[in-house]
Design a protein that fits this description.
The protein is of the alpha+beta class and about 375 residues long. The protein folds into 2 domains: about 120 residues, Immunoglobulins (Immunoglobulin-like), CATH 2.60.40; about 160 residues, Sandwich (Jelly Rolls). The protein is about 15% helix and about 35% strand. It is built from 5 helices and 22 strands. The strands form 4 sheets. Strands 11, 12, 13, 14, 16, 17, 18, 20 and 21 form a 9-stranded antiparallel sheet that branches. Strands 2, 4, 5, 7, 8 and 9 form a 6-stranded mixed sheet that branches. Strands 10-22-15-19 form a 4-stranded antiparallel sheet. Helix 1 packs antiparallel against helix 2. It is elongated. The termini are far apart.
Length: about 375
């Protein structure tokens, strides 16, 4: 059989088979769902009918799938990091010179911390520069701003004529040092003809000042101890010449009284320091152990008698306290004693009372201190 005859016979068989399959799909009772196998076969038949074939082919090869041309995208490059743009904001400097502004040059007199006597008169002089754009005239004034006025005026006209911008002038004011020792500082400014105050500094608003230290010439004296006006008074009413504070074997309490002659201190003296020396004493027993702290009080007693004994320990008015014999042996400078003595200046006597916190420890033993000759130094000045 020739090749052509074989091809025709094969084609006919395929067509008949396809027809049988298609007709079977239309039999009653069959669903309408398409037969995937039949559909595939029909497609195969159609493909073969259209395949031109060629000599020597025993079958038809599957066509190559179409090649889809693809374009490969070029590699993505990272965009360059932008260089930040730095914008420089220009600094604007205000070069406008105010109309009225001063600049401190130097202290011509009384530099800061100058030591002066109480109530001493002095003249303070500042050298100032006209650091503004307006001329100072006699309508300008020095004015007190704040702090310690030291007896100065509230205002004082300038008397140096005109002071052009850039020029300097000396501004003076008469003052008086305060009567009490200490540091004092007064602040001052200038005022223009329109009543506007101004001073030194960039804004022309800061004051200039005067600062002094009041340090008086002082006198130090030893005030005499008056033995005949000093002594002890017991709770039981006995008065003795010894200066004893504590209790005895009868548990009778004693208080010591001390008198100092201050008639040598001027009536107008200002007391600055009092040094009390009670180191001349003897100890019997252990008074600090059983009786507690020793206190000293100002006491304006007259002639000693039984009424001068104080039956309790006052909670106020204590000038000094001691808690041991070692502390009692030290010299004492105390402001409370200064204040107490100041109230007696102008009189002839300054009197004190010494007593323990407890009147007795009830142990039936001697526990007391006996004072010999106390000493007192007083420092003062007169205004």
């Amino acid at each position: 059989m020739s090749l052509l005859t074989r091809r025709k016979t094969t084609t006919l068989v395929i067509i008949l088979s396809a027809g049988l399959i298609l007709s079977a799909c239309n039999f009653p009772g069959m669903g309408a769902t398409p037969d995937l196998f039949a559909t595939s076969a029909a497609q195969t038949v159609a493909a073969r009918l259209t395949d031109p074939g060629g000599p020597g082919d025993e079958g038809t090869a599957e066509p190559e799938p179409p090649q889809i041309a693809t374009t490969e995208a070029p590699p993505t490059e990272e965009p360059p990091t932008p260089t930040p743009t730095i914008t420089l904001t220009p600094t604007i400097t205000n070069t406008t010179i105010p109309c009225d502004r001063a600049a401190f040059v130097t202290d011509v007199t009384i530099p800061d911390g100058e030591e002066l006597q109480p109530n001493e008169s002095f003249t303070k002089t500042w050298r100032l520069k006209n650091d503004g754009s307006c001329t100072w005239t006699s309508s300008y004034a020095l004015i007190f701003n704040s702090g310690d006025s030291m007896g100065g005026p509230a205002s004082q006209q300038l008397t140096s004529g005109t002071v052009a911008p850039g020029a300097t002038m000396d501004v003076s004011v008469n003052l008086t040092a305060p009567s009490s020792p200490g540091t004092y500082k007064g602040y001052w400014k200038l005022r223009n003809g329109s009543g506007v105050n101004f001073g030194i500094g960039t804004g022309g608003t800061n004051p200039f000042w005067v600062e002094i230290e009041v340090v008086p010439n002082t006198t130090t004296i030893s005030v005499p101890f008056v033995s005949g006006e000093s002594g002890q008074v017991t709770k039981s009413g006995f008065v003795f010449g010894n200066r004893i504070a504590g209790d005895n074997i009868a548990n009778d309490s004693s208080q010591a009284f001390l008198s100092f002659n201050i008639s040598g201190i001027p009536a107008d003296a200002v007391i600055t320091e009092v040094v009390l020396d009670l180191s001349d004493f003897t100890e019997t027993g252990n008074p600090f152990s059983g009786l507690g702290a020793l206190f000293i009080f100002k006491d304006d007693y007259g002639g000693l008698d039984d009424t001068d004994f104080v039956g309790s320990t006052p909670s106020s008015g204590r000038l000094i306290s001691w808690s041991s014999t070692s502390s009692l042996g030290n010299l004492v400078s105390d402001q409370d004693v200064v204040n107490a003595l100041q109230t007696k200046v102008g009189s002839s006597r300054f009197k004190l009372r010494l007593q323990f916190n407890k009147q007795t420890d009830s142990d039936g033993s001697n526990d007391y201190l006996t004072f010999g000759s106390p000493k007192m130094e007083v420092t003062y000045y007169t205004p």
